[in-house]
Amino acid sequence: MKQRRLLCVILSLCLLLTLLAGCGSAPAAETGGPSSPAPAAPGGESAGTPPAPPEGSGQPQGTPPAGQPGGMPPEGQPGGMPPEGQPGGTPPEGQPRGPGGTPPEGQPGGTPPEGQPGGPGGTPPEGQPGGPGGTPPEGQPGGPGGSADLSYQAAQEITETSARKDERYASSSADENALLVTAPGKVELTNPRVTKSGGSQGGDACSFYGLNAAVLVKDGAELSITGGSVSSEAEGANGVFCYGGNGGRNGAQGDGTTLTIRNTVIRTAGGGSGGIMTTGGGVTYAYDLDVETQGRSSAAIRTDRGGGQVYVEGGRYLSKGLGSPAIYSTAEVHAANAALISECAEGLCIEGKNSIELTECELIANNTQRNGNARFLDSVMLYQSMSGDAASGSSAFTMDGGSLTSKNGHVFHVTNTSAVITLRGVEIVNEDPENVLLSVCDDGWSGAGHAAALKACAQQLTGAVKVGGNASLSLELTEGSAFTGSIDGEITDAAGASISTQTGAVSVTLDADSTWTLSADSHITEFHGSAANVIANGHTLYLNGEPLTGTR
Description:
Strand content: 35-45%
Number of strands: 44
Number of domains: 1
Mean pLDDT: 81
């Protein structure tokens, strides 16, 4: 009996213990009930707010340490809005963004910023190459290389400031200067004798950068030559060459290279061999020189890519070769009291956005042979070749006093550019039987229009003015100027081929003291002034197809 009671007690205790164990937690599958205390964290610590980790442990906590993920990312790490300098959102200035969106200034994508390439197939920015086979951009060489790529050789080089007298310099080697001056200061030569032979195939290197010239001054040097002689008998051997170091970038500043030369005799015989030559932003002062050139494309006063400034006072400049004017300007050229003579080509030629100013000069031109693309013979030519040797823009010719004798062809010719011709008190002698004073029309170059302004101040003008159907002219007569001649658009070239049969846009302005005497029926589209200052002389002036009334 006692054993049975003991057994019952034991069973009751087991049942009670089982019931007590089942009341400790809800079943695992149950949801929605009261939340239970969180289980103990590993290591015996609860999972609420963690204790501070030991210093330097790098363990996570509420706000993570700098450089670790969690919450707001630290500066310089991804997450949310990216910090400055990282991808995502708007990138900081000067940094690229990921694909899409507008790139920051100076980076590829969309429209390239000024001065940066546009990627394949786009239009390159101004001043950058246009890709293979295209026309080189303004102010850039038309092919690889530049002065920095040249290795200059010289029979003698002057690298230090000095003054020298009665010295001789000679070279007979190809692509070698007889004298190279690179001194960082002034070099003075008195009565030097310089001779140069040994031709070059350097082409642009000779014309742009002075390779093979008899005398070359560059690298910011200041060379002064007084008296003496310079002679070259080779291809691509300019007489005295001033290269200003701007790499052939038209309009760019030079490095200060300056040539001052006076009372010197200069003779060149080869092609591409000018007398005095200025490029790359150089500055040349020439006084009372005696210069003669014999070769093709060898202007006595010659300039080329990169331009510069040339100041001439006195002297005689004679060019005898094909395509060799007395002055060829891709620069700013001023000449006073000088004799300028060409025996086979234009007297003067201005290319693109450049100028020639003459004061009390004698200019004689006998253009007997057309050169290159030219379809006309003329004495003063203003044009743009689109070769890259000159920036595009208005060409300017100014002549004050002196005389201009045109032995063959048109006196003035403007094509493929805009041009301003200003004349004051110049004696003009036109010996050509066709008596064409000015033509503005198509020629052998294209890519731009033909627009001229002829401004006559106290000036006598005689001859026919020819304005092609796709050209324009503004003629201004002031300060008692008088024009005896006609205006129309009937133009034939030197070979007799028709260039134009229609007259383009022509504006004529006469001040109260100036007159126009007609030598033939004429056609214009604008008239400013008094019709009484137009002397009909038995002819008719048509304004937009209608006779102008009030002429006398």
